[in-house]
Each structure stands twice: as C-alpha cells, then as structure tokens.
Amino acid sequence: MPDHVQWLMQIRKGAELSAIVQKVKSQTSKALKRQDRQLDRNWQRGFHDHALRKEEDLIAMARYVVANPLRAGLVKSLRDYPLWDAIWL
Q: Are residues 45 and 57 in the same domain?
C-alpha cells in the first residue's frame, strides 16, 4: 500500500510489539535515507494494532490484508500481487 502498512504476524512470547514496530520504522527510514528518498516524515507517530483472538479469525484477516492492493486499485487481479499466495489462503 502506498500510504500505510498492514502487517499480519505472530510475535514470540515476551516480545514487545512497540519495539518491533519501532525497529521496522527505524530500519525503513535509514534505508530510504541511504537511497536519497528521505521524506520530511516517513512515519506517523504511534500505530494501531488489532489482536486476533480466535484461530478462525486468522484466515479472514489474512484474506483482508492480501486483498488490500486489489481494493485500492493497485492491481487488477490478486495474481498480480506478489504476496497473494500467503499460507493462509
């Protein structure tokens, strides 16, 4: 997605989600700076998370995330999206 990230992951017990997000933001900003693509602000402050509680929710959420480029009009078919074949689909 050109203006946001949706991420479906399982974190290890004891891992801090905020530390993971901070690391991703930091590493991405550093990589953009190395490519002279640094923007005034690459990331907004904070983030929104949603915890999945039931196993059956995982498939629905994976399908929602993978279908985002299609809904946004970035691809004409899910097959045009390189990550469409996620293990949950």
A: no
Q: Per-residue pLDDT for 88 more than 70?
A: no
Q: What is the domain extent for residue 83? A: 52-89
Q: Beta-strand (E) ranges in the chain? A: none
b vs e for 43-68, b when ≥16 Cβ sit within 10 Å of the residue's Cβ?
eeeeeeeeeeeeeeeeeeebeebbee
For 29-69, how does the pLDDT look when each residue is reduced to its tens digit (9 = 90+)? Answer: 888 888 887 666 778 888 888 888 777 788 888 888 888 88
Say if residue 11 is in the same domain as residue 22: yes
Q: Domain check: are 17 and 5 in the same one?
A: yes
